[in-house]
Amino acid sequence: MNPLLVVTGGTKGIGRAIADRFISEGFDAVICARTVTGVEGQNYLPVAADLSTRDGVNQLIDYLQALNRPVAVLVNNTGVFQPGQIHTEAEGVFEQLMATNVASAYHLTRGLVGDMIARREGHIVMMCSTASITAYTNGGSYCISKYALLGMSRVLREELKPHGVKVTAVMPGATLTASWEGTELPEDRFMKAEDVADTVWAAYSLSRSAVVEEVLIRPQLGDI
């Protein structure tokens, strides 16, 4: 049986690139997003769920438990960006971004990590951002959520050290995905989603005695 990857926000962009890379290496991939139209193939297992809600997270956990297969790698990639400043952004933006970018990863990880601990193996990847370490104007609640996600990753790393479960925080800079549609900037100012996927695969491929705790990836020409 193929090892199992779980990717949230996995229908496009970085999440889809990660799923494609792991599938090319012999994995099956559970891909979760609000809509999973167009996700097809023998090794793709699409699940439609809104992970910004607790019910949506529980729906995904129930699906995974029904598979009765160990999760080798969990990639908490679900996220949403909304520009704004703390003192001017609309009411509810903070709650929306924290629910989608942070709470989804918290509850999904809690739902799956017990089995990883029991097996003494597994790898949890937190898709953070350069916004996890660099605050910027117009980042608002997005920056807050990404700082929080990095903090969660660091706490998990300490908690899971003695249990054989790896935790990696990935902090990509500007990556050419749908969120940059319409930009007039040239493609070479961006990383490719495949660059991030290759980095995640490299982190997973280390021996059991080594872990990439945090990795920062930026475009060659620097931040945008």
From TrEMBL:
Coiled coil: none
Family per similarity comment: Belongs to the short-chain dehydrogenases/reductases (SDR) family.
Domain of life: Bacteria
CDD domains assigned to the protein according to its UniProt record, in alphabetical order: SDR_c (cd05233)
Name of the molecule in the record: Short-chain dehydrogenase
Keyword Oxidoreductase: yes
Organism: Arsenicibacter rosenii
Keywords: Oxidoreductase
SUPFAM superfamilies assigned: NAD(P)-binding Rossmann-fold domains
GO molecular function (one): oxidoreductase activity
